[in-house]
Amino acid sequence: MNEFNLPNHPQEENLEKLEIYLLLEGIYLQYGYDYRDYAYPSIRRRVWHRVLAEKLPTITSLLDKVLHDVSCFERLIADFSINVTEMFRDPLFFKEFKDKVIPMLRTYPSIRIWHAGCSTGEEVYSMAILLHEAGLYDKTKIYATDINTDVLKTAKNGRFSLEHMKKYTSNYMQAGGEEAFSDYYKVTDSGVKFHSFLTENVVFAQHNLVTDSSFNEFHVILCRNVLIYFNKDLQNKVHSLFYNSLGKFGVLCLGNKESINYTKFDKMYEEISASQKIYKKIK
Ligand SMILES: C[S@@+](CC[C@H](N)C(=O)[O-])C[C@H]1O[C@@H](n2cnc3c(N)ncnc32)[C@H](O)[C@@H]1O
After folding, report:
1. Alpha carbon distance 273, 197 (integer Å)
2. Could you report the per-residue pLDDT of 168-215, keeping only the tens digit for each?
3. At 19, is the pLDDT very low, low, confident or very high (cuts 50, 70, 90)?
4. pLDDT above 50 (res 96)
5. Separation of CA 260 and ligand 1 centre (Å)
6. For the chain, how many structural domains are there in total?
7. Are 131 and 232 found together in one domain?
């Protein structure tokens, strides 16, 4: 046994796999949330975290509790939802987007962008600022979606902690920001509030990449640091959704640990930026 009391022996491992399988099936059948194809190591860690937090003896007893106590189900899916994000995360991505994608977007009469798995919205505010500085925000509609309704509330609110602003300012500058970052927010008693014009062209909505279908045709789809939590089959399924949701020459942006290579769709795109995982649909 190790720090989480995780089994180390093959027989125990098989039993653990069976229990996790039954737990995820139970959640799907009872609540319609489908975590069956999420990456196993990450789900396993989070399941054990919840078993210990609820002071339960086994994963099967967690299944029992999840089925009979909705609040326990909610705590477990909150554990499954990893919401880490930041403004201008991976600044070089935004710089590359500005240098290589913005010139393409300039040629369109209107622009539709989908942030899939937007978490608390920092990525969306960053994109709105970038588009504003490029003079393109007014003709853009941004659709920002996530499975988790709590993070969407924070995103809509536009209130963030002051303690991160130093880091975000540095990210913004590395990303090629052209103004003073502090012009985009005001400091309040409880943190910072970003200016409401940055969300005037944004629609925040719940959307589950596993079970929901396409809802528009987009010029750009950003899905960064989400697919990493899915297994290969599910990644392919979501890539199919993105492929079908992008227009001709549409741009797909992935996270820095993600890639279109080795998926069923790698021949359908060409690289705009290999290092920053930006791809253009060519077929
Ligand atoms: C690590 S955050 C990434 C946030 C942002 N894209 C970034 O790169 O900073 C992953 C987000 O994916 C969301 N997510 C996980 N599974 C999802 C699903 N099936 N459908 C939609 N969003 C999902 C989580 O709720 C979480 O907010």
Report:
1. 30
2. 999 999 999 999 999 999 999 999 999 999 999 999 999 999 999 999
3. very high
4. yes
5. 18
6. 2
7. yes
Position 61: which residue type? S
* Angle at the Cα of 41 from the Cα atoms of 35 and 45, rounded to 5 degrees: 85
Give which of 226, 277, 219 is closest to 93, Cα–Cα: 277
In a shared domain, residues 135 and 255: yes
**In this structure, are 181 and 256 located in the same domain?**
yes
What are the residues facing 278 on neighbouring strands?
253, 273
Together in a domain, 154 and 44: no
Whole-number Å distance, alpha carbon 276 to ligand 1 midpoint, is 18
Quick check: 267 and 258 in contact, CB under 8 A?
A: no
Predicted model pTM: 0.93
* Cβ atoms within 10 Å, residue 200: 11
The answer to whether residue 133 sits within a structural domain is yes
Quick check: is 5 in a domain?
A: no
Task: Please report whether residue 271 resides in a domain.
Answer: yes
- Domain identity same for 76 and 188: no
Distance 82 CA to ligand 1 centre (A): 7
Separation of alpha carbons 201 and 83, rounded Å: 23
Residues lining ligand 1, judged by CB closer than 6 Å? 81-85, 89, 117-119, 123, 146-148, 151, 208-210, 224-226, 255
The pick from 126, 146, 149 for probing ligand 1's pocket by mutation, whose C-beta has the most ligand atoms within 8 angstroms, reads 146
Q: In terms of domains, do 124 and 28 share one?
A: no
How far is 113 from 123, CA to CA, in rounded Å? 12
Question: What's the mean pLDDT in 102-115?
Answer: 98
Which ligand 1 atom lies nearest to the CA of residue 151?
Answer: 27
What confidence tens digit (pLDDT) does each residue in 191-204 have?
Answer: 999 999 999 999 99
Range of the domain at 67: 10-80
235 and 110 in a single domain? The answer is: yes
- The Å distance, Cα 115 to ligand 1 centre, comes to 10
